[in-house]
């Protein structure tokens, strides 16, 4: 494929992009090889295999959104939700645009294609702002990072929407035959944002965090993104011809982009920490203690019980002796006194109680004995 700056002709002959029916010169707007169509209820469905991946991507995005929502005290939770919502909306719109349910010759397709392109550009802006801010730097409490993120995405969305609409309509000095601005938005802007984000996060994880798993998430996300571009723009025709037109490069592009977004979520999930001990959606109960720690705690408690429970034992014994002068200390200890203590302190060892020093009789008990 011969890529020329500002031209979609050679690109659209290889890859079935959503903007291809609206830009470029006539005769160069369709790929030389594309996946087979299917008829569903009298309607031709283009890219059926890719549509299944779009549907799966929407479902996976919904799951990730739910997981992020449960971490309601996690840092940058709202920023991550903005990115995932943008991705879910993009994949949902791609179902109707890639499948041809909305006809390419209609005005609705032009408007939705411009909206789709603007959302994609805003999603890359969201990724860049999240990455440059650092997932650990911006706290959840202040809304300043969220406002800055929303403002940046809104600015990119508005500029892209204007450029896309003007290019499709060949107005405001822009032309559909020479869509230089749209070409920059489609190719240079994603490349700039992704490379910048990867470099920033690698620097963060290697220099400060020192976590190999986080570095692996960043590298895997970058790998899937690069693989998506190569499979779509370099090997789409070869894939289509070798698999008898069942799937093409767009299928693998959508799948790899889904995996890349999942790596972004995994990186965020591994990076952020929740400050609340009663966290929602945590698999581990914050009160659960490992067995080794529990045994060590019981040993420490056993060593400290004779001193800490001495006063309580004396009080219970004195009360029993005062109520019944004829009962001995030993009988009382077996029947009443230690039983109440054991009920309150179940970790007390009964064998240790037998070794406790005897408690002297209370003055009240002694006076009663003298009177008798």
TrEMBL record:
Regions that span the bilayer: 45-68, 80-102, 108-129, 149-168, 180-206, 213-237, 243-265
Organism encoding this protein: Sistotremastrum suecicum HHB10207 ss-3
Disordered, as annotated region: 352-372
Entry protein name: Chitin synthase export chaperone
Protein family per UniProt: Belongs to the CHS7 family.
Coiled coil: none
Gene Ontology molecular function, alphabetical: unfolded protein binding
Main location: endoplasmic reticulum
One GO location term (cellular component): endoplasmic reticulum membrane
GO terms (BP aspect): cell wall organization; protein folding; protein transport
Localization: Endoplasmic reticulum membrane
Topology within the bilayer: Multi-pass membrane protein
Keywords, in A-Z order: Cell wall biogenesis/degradation, Endoplasmic reticulum, Membrane, Protein transport, Transmembrane, Transmembrane helix, Transport
Domain of life: Eukaryota
């Amino acid at each position: 494929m011969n890529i020329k700056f500002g031209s979609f002709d050679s690109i659209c002959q290889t890859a079935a992009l959503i903007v291809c029916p609206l830009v470029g010169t006539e005769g160069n707007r369709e790929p030389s090889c594309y996946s087979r169509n299917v008829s569903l209820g009298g309607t031709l469905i283009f890219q059926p295999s890719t549509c299944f991946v779009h549907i799966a991507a929407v479902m996976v995005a919904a799951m990730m959104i739910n997981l992020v929502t449960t971490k309601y005290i996690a840092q940058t939770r709202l920023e991550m939700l903005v990115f995932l919502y943008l991705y879910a909306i993009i994949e949902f719109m791609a179902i109707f645009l890639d499948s041809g349910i909305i006809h390419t010759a209609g005005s609705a397709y032009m408007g939705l294609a411009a909206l789709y392109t603007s959302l994609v550009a805003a999603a890359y802006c969201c990724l860049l702002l999240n990455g440059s801010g650092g997932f650990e730097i911006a706290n959840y409490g202040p809304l300043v990072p969220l406002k800055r993120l929303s403002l940046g995405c809104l600015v990119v969305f508005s500029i892209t929407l204007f450029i896309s609409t003007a290019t499709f309509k060949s107005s405001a000095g822009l032309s559909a035959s020479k869509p230089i601005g749209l070409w920059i938005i489609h190719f240079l802007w994603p490349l700039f944002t992704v490379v910048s984000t990867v470099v920033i996060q690698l620097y963060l994880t290697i220099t400060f965090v020192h976590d190999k798993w986080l570095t692996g998430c960043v590298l895997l996300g970058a790998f899937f993104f690069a693989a998506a571009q190569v499979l779509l723009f370099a090997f789409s025709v070869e894939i289509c011809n070798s698999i008898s037109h069942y799937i093409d490069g767009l299928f693998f592009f959508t799948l790899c982009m889904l995996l890349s977004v999942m790596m972004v979520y995994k990186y965020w999930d591994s990076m952020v920490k929740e400050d609340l001990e009663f966290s929602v959606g945590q698999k581990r109960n914050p009160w659960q203690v490992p067995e080794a720690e529990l045994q060590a705690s019981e040993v420490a408690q056993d060593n400290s019980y004779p001193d800490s429970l001495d006063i309580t034992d004396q009080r219970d014994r004195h009360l029993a002796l005062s109520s019944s002068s004829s009962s001995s200390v030993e009988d009382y200890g077996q029947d009443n006194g230690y039983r109440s203590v054991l009920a309150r302190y179940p970790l007390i060892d009964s064998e240790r109680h037998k070794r406790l020093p005897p408690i002297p009789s209370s003055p009240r008990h002694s006076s009663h004995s003298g009177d008798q």
